[in-house]
Design brief:
This protein is an alpha/beta fold. The chain has one domain: 3-Layer(aba) Sandwich (Rossmann fold). The protein is built from 8 helices and 7 strands. A 7-stranded mixed sheet has the order 3-2-1-4-5-7-6, with helices on both faces. β4, α7 and β5 form a beta-alpha-beta unit. α3 crosses α4 and α7 packs across α8. The longest helix is centred in the N-terminal third of the chain and has 15 residues. The model has no long low-confidence stretch (mean pLDDT 94). It is found in: Cytoplasm. InterPro entries: rRNA_ssu_MeTfrase_G (IPR003682), SAM-dependent_MTases_sf (IPR029063). It holds the Pfam family GidB.
């Protein structure tokens, strides 16, 4: 079993047992079910669970959160474990990953809603409605991601995208595209500073209005 880092207790609090159980499920089944790569097993805690959970620093108490493209469960599952006050909806289009997310929720007794669908589909948007916060991790470049996620964000709410080293380059490149779909100027910040050895980079975009409609010719 992959050792549980000491900092995990600080991040997950009363949910540490659930976090450990989730890590054990990923260690046992994640690779064979195509959820994580073989090299990720040794990095489950620092690169995945803790990296995802600290995003909760940017989310106020009691909000509704839609996690787009949850996949193996990131960032939505660790976030829901660390922040049981949140109403978390996990959205995933692939059936096998949807099955996995339901198994996780049942096994570790996690109170989340799991929904199959793609964020860009009108049917999914009608089914899940809007949320205060929409999260994602390694789903798509920022411009495309904003087009998918911002329609799920209530006006005045925000999109939080977990990104890597390319975050600032994406913000510089895609800021105009984000504005066209109703987003504020994207900002880059770090979560878990002073807690994690490598803090989590997050791009934040507030939904300030509806998407601009194309101008009619003539």
């Amino acid at each position: 079993m992959v050792p549980v880092p000491e900092v995990a207790g600080r991040v997950f609090g009363d949910g540490l047992d659930q976090a450990v159980a989730f890590a054990e499920m990923l260690e046992r089944f994640g690779v064979e079910r195509g959820l994580i790569g073989p090299r990720e097993v040794e990095r489950l805690w620092d690169r995945h669970l803790l990296n995802s959970a600290v995003v909760g620093e940017r989310i106020a108490d009691g909000l509704r959160v839609i996690d787009v493209g949850s996949g193996a469960g990131f960032p939505g599952v660790p976030l829901a474990i660390a922040r049981p006050d949140l109403d978390v909806v996990l959205v995933e289009p692939m059936a096998r990953r949807l099955d996995w997310l339901n198994e996780v929720a049942d096994t570790i007794k996690l109170d989340v809603t799991v929904v199959r669908g793609r964020a860009e589909e009108k049917a999914l948007r009608e089914r899940v409605g809007t949320a205060d916060v929409v999260t994602s991790r390694a789903v798509a470049p920022l411009a495309r991601l904003a087009g998918w996620c911002l329609p799920l964000v209530r006006e005045g709410g925000m999109m939080l995208a977990v990104k890597g080293a390319s975050a600032r380059d994406e913000v510089a490149r895609d800021a105009k595209a984000v504005a066209r779909v109703g987003g504020s100027a994207p900002t880059v910040s770090e979560c878990g500073v002073g807690v994690l050895e490598t803090p989590t980079t997050v791009v934040r975009v507030e939904r300030v209005r509806s998407a601009r409609r194309p101008r009619r010719a003539g």
